[in-house]
Input
Amino acid sequence: MKQLLEHFYPDDYHCYRQAGNAALLAGDAATARTHLTSAIIAAGPNAPKFTAALLVDRARAHVELKDLAGARADLDRALALAPSDATALLLSAALAARQGDIGRAQRDIARASELAPSDPDVMLQQGTIAAAAGDLEAAKAVWGAVVKAAPGSDAAALARRRLEGVGAAPPK
Output
């Protein structure tokens, strides 16, 4: 696939990104990482916001491959290029929590919440990080807010399960 892409679109980072994300959705994180790396190279230094988005995509591939250091490096670089990218902050917070860096997780999710206060995925992660920090009451409040704000979303379904897991009734 890469040779085909290089033959027809040697500098088309959009094509590489689409191929990378398709591979990620298909469960082939190694191929995704390869295509996304090609996209980052093709994008070059003249498209910092797009490069940041590519780095976020590649960080997802790194996580699937259990390369958390690679994911951290890509997310840090993405945030250096686009410090107000709520998605990068959300993923950075989730990764920090997964790595046990609750302080970093709290800072990143707080900034993501400022930028995207009604995003159910940001809210869900905010509750998860609050629980990890030992503030179960704050976690329950945020998870309840997710259910109310986006009742049909995947985030709300997960928030309901988390509420039930801590013995709290989800809001109706």
User: Anything to note?
Assistant: DSSP finds ten helices and no strands in the chain. Confidence is low (pLDDT under 50) at residues 4-10.
